[in-house]
Write the structure tokens for this entry.
Amino acid sequence: MTQTESRLAEEILELARELDALLYGEFVLASGQTSSYYFDGRLLTLSPRGANLVARALLPAIRESGAVAVGGPAVAAVPMVTEIAMLSGQDGGEPIPGFFVRKEAKDHGAGKAVEGPLPEGARVAIVDDACSTAGSLYMAIEAAEAAGHEVVLVGCILDRRQGGSERLLADGYAFHTILVGDDEGRVGVA
């Protein structure tokens, strides 16, 4: 991690604490596992400063991966994808459009599960706010791949280190995170 990336990660962690996006107690996660802490990335990514920090932290890895689009599972990834796409159109680099993946394809209209301006057979990055068992990430990965796209990077704000990132790496996906956590609730810079 570069000095700039480390500084951004420290700012993201500090802001997450300020916004109460990082809470301690007894929580049941989407994966069904219990945890001594909860990370609500939406509080971070829906705040103006947090949106900017997260996009600035993830965009370099997305560009380096060769992805030409960035997407993720609705709902948590939608603000992240929007922030990254917007920043990519302002930083002088090639614009990277965004997309999102529905849990289920619509039963009306075009009936799509993957929504957004994606070129056919695109190299894509998949992002989400957190990774525990990677269930939501895999849902988005599988939908993107079923639509003919190649997933070249999977990224998140917080890797909870509950098996998801290890599974992604074992399955051959490049993985990038800003923060890491452990079972005792210690969260720090990756």
